[in-house]
Amino acid sequence: MMDGMSSSVIPRKRRDPVLIGLWISLVLVALIWLAPVVFILFTSLKSESEIFSSAAFALPSDFQWSNFSVAWAKGNFNQTFVNSSVITVIKVPLGLLISAMAAYALAQIPTGWNKLLLVFVLFGAMIPFQVMLAPLFTLVNSMGLIDTYPGIILPYLAFGVPYQVFILHGFFRAVPKELTEAALIDGASHFTIFRRIFLPVSLPVLSALLILDFVATWNEFAMALVLLQDKNMWNLPLGLMSYQGQFSNNYGQLNAAIVMTVLPATIVYLIFQRYFVSGLTSGAVKG
Amino acid sequence: MATVEIADLRKSFGAFPVVHGVSMGFKDGEFIILVGPSGCGKSTLLRMIAGLEDVTSGTISIGGRVVNALSPKERNIAMVFQNYALYPQMTVAQNLGFSLELSKMPKPEIEAKIKESAEILGLTPLLDRKPSQLSGGQRQRVAMGRAIVRDPEVFLFDEPLSNLDANLRVKMRAEIKALHQRLGSTIVYVTHDQVEAMTMADRIVVLRSGKVEQIGTPMDLFDNPKNMFVAGFLGSPAMNFLTGRLAADGSAALVLGNGERVALARRPPAAGDSDVVLGVRPQDISPDPENGTAATVKVIEPTGTETHVLVELAGQEITCVLGARLDINPGDEIRLSFATPAAHFFDAKTEARLETGSTKHEG
Fold it and tell me: How far is residue B89's CA from residue A183's CA, in Å, rounded to a whole number?
């Protein structure tokens, strides 16, 4: 009888108060970050009159998809979207490739100068680019590259590579030296080792860097403002700023423009985010 | 399969010399073990043979061809690393076939080779697994398989068993030896473990501080060590050394620091006026209640088959291996005989052996 009683009563698991606190703060932070997104998304679908009559976070009663088409046309999105796409699609993979190859060479091919070279590359990440905006303009201008794709992609590469090299170098250096040596004995060239062994091993880190770099490049404003003067060469953030200046009275269309600007980066993030998480914990990857 | 010749090989890292002009030759099909304490330059030597380290001066020849300037892949060698160095994202089969694929061998041939070496090493059921799904011993076998598929002229092993637990190490030791007998290839094997060296090698190279101390067959080094270092390095438990002076009356006895006399089987040639070191292996010390030298028992370690007894004699610690069951306790006094013909005598100053002849072990 007693035995039956004691086995049927399962003691309540004590909940860890720290864990509960963490969860509550996590939910709060998530709400703070989600609120503007929800606001922008809902507003972009509301008519002009509904925006002022309904609550900020109320669902739109009647979906105004026309906000998007109107904003797309008025904001010259045809052009800015293409410009942003070209710049990002060339810059991000190219920058990652250069960074990964440089990081591999610095981490795995001993020359006696590796440390010095690494410090030299890392200097690029230490100087804030705002300091260099004016000289950068002079330089790009003297090369006749203002208002061209190379004129913006090259500086993006120059400013992006150092911190990517920094992160990838740390990752590649943690790969045991014997792995490279075994491959060298097996008859692999350094390029083969890089492509067949290091790239697959570092996919999570590369995905994380790809996301960060995609979002950063897609949203880049200051350098584009200085180096892209011609309206037809503007990227999305520049186009959005101009749109806001001209049509700020129509909130529905303005928010539709914002959604269209942000959407591609969000999609890329969602595609790669599972790698992103494992990339941030990449110290656990086995060599 | 090939010979390896090393002539006056030197290596310095910056201004710091690591290998000081070593010369040696390995015969075709020989199992050579480079052994020595850590920092003796044995791994550096192996890595120079592999082409992973530059040579500062001297030459390395494999199969009669000087390979100093050749890259690792042109030397036709294979190497097994201590941490296995398997390619983590490739399956066992891909790991085995990687070098063949790089050498542009046709696919069916590669598959046949993978199958053959997997069978030799018992890897067939594991071919589709990734290295992370294998145990330490299985990984080590894959690393060896990766070496075998290439039919290299020389196999290089860099402490391949150091990451394995004790039981597995004994098992893999036998496997590697069997593999050598089966393939008949030249093997250069680095270890700091003298048991591995004794049990596996055709010839052992004992290194210390970047210099060769002695080269010879395991039993030759065991019976005729050139100096105290080699004598103390090989054998387990290690050889005991007792420092003293030869008896002034010309008899076969050693007089220790405290005046205690140790009877010897023979009187070695005098070493000038410097002290003499008596070297006796623990197995050669026997209890002798009548004529033995008195010693105090400190620690008793029964192993089942035999008992290791640590005793103190004139302020010097001595390990002896005695019969399986002994009725002694720490603090007891026992009398031990060192008068074995297998004893060695060394010059205390130069550490060199005083006799050049061979000494025989009798059980």
Answer: 14
Assign domain B4-228 to its CATH superfamily: P-loop containing nucleotide triphosphate hydrolases (3.40.50.300)
Q: Which position has the token pair 């990002």?
A: A88
- The chain B residue lying nearest A109, using CA atoms, is B52
Q: Measure the CA dihedral B344/B348/B354/B358, to 10°.
A: 30
A55 with A186, same domain: the answer is: no
Residues in chain A closer than 8 A to B50 (CB atoms): 181, 185
Size of interface A-B (CB pairs under 8 A): 59
Structure tokens at A176: 């045991």
Which residues in chain A have Cβ-Cβ distances shorter than 8 Å to B87? 179, 182-183, 196-197
A190 CB neighbours in chain B (<8 A) are none
Q: Over 80: is that where the pLDDT of A234 sits?
A: yes
Give domain status of residue A7, yes or no: no
Residue A183, pLDDT above cutoff 60? yes
Shared-domain flag, residues A20 and A103: no
Are A31 and A146 within one domain?
Answer: no
Interface check for B79 against chain A (CB to CB < 8 A): the answer is yes
pLDDT at residue A150 tops 90: yes
Quickly state the pLDDT bin for A54 (edges 50, 70, 90). Answer: confident
Judging contacts by C-beta atoms under 8 Å, the chain B residues touching residue A187 are 73, 99, 102-103
pLDDT at residue A100 greater than cutoff 80: yes
- Closest Cα in chain B, distance from residue A112 (Å): 11
pLDDT tens digits, one per residue of A208-225: 899 889 999 999 999 999
CATH of domain B238-347: 2.40.50.140
Instruction: Quote the DSSP letter at residue A128.
Output: -
**Number of domains forming the structure of chain A:** 2
Q: Which domain holds residue A25?
A: 12-64
Q: Quick one: closest CA in A to B155, which residue? A: A185
Residues A218 and A270 in one domain: yes
Say what the ipTM of the complex is: 0.83
Please check the confidence at residue A287 and state whether its pLDDT lies above 60. Answer: no
Residues from chain A that touch B81, judged by Cβ atoms under 8 A, are: 178, 181-182
Tell me A200's DSSP state: H
**pLDDT for A236 beyond 70:** yes
The C-alpha of A193 sits at a distance from chain B's nearest C-alpha, in angstroms, of 10
The answer to whether residue A154 scores a pLDDT higher than 90 is yes
A59 and A150 inside one domain: no
Do residues B194 and B236 make contact, with C-beta atoms less than 8 angstroms apart? yes
Residues 130-189 of A with CB under 8 A from B: 176, 178-179, 181-188
Indicate the residue type of B214.
Q
How many Å lie between the alpha carbon of A192 and the closest alpha carbon of chain B? 9
Mutate to test the interface with B, among A108, A185, A199, A282 (most CBs of B within 10 A): A185
Start-to-end CA span in chain B (Å)? 37
Judgement on whether residues A132 and A227 belong to the same structural domain of the protein: yes
Rounded to 5 degrees, φ, ψ at B96 are -65, -40
Q: Do B72 and A179 touch (CB under 8 A)?
A: no
Q: Which residue of B has its CA nearest to A192?
A: B102
- CA of A98 vs chain B CAs: smallest distance (Å): 23
Q: Of A84, A89, A88, A95, give the one whose Cα is nearest residue A233.
A: A84
Mean pLDDT, contiguous 10-residue spans, chain B (363 residues): 90 91 94 93 94 93 93 92 90 94 93 92 92 90 92 93 88 90 92 92 94 94 93 91 87 85 85 82 90 90 88 90 80 89 90 71 41
B9 min Cα distance to partner chain A (Å) = 21
The pLDDT assigned to A195 comes to 93
The pLDDT, as a whole number, for residue B272 is: 66
Identify whether residues A115 and A39 lie together within a single domain: no
pLDDT, position B362: 40
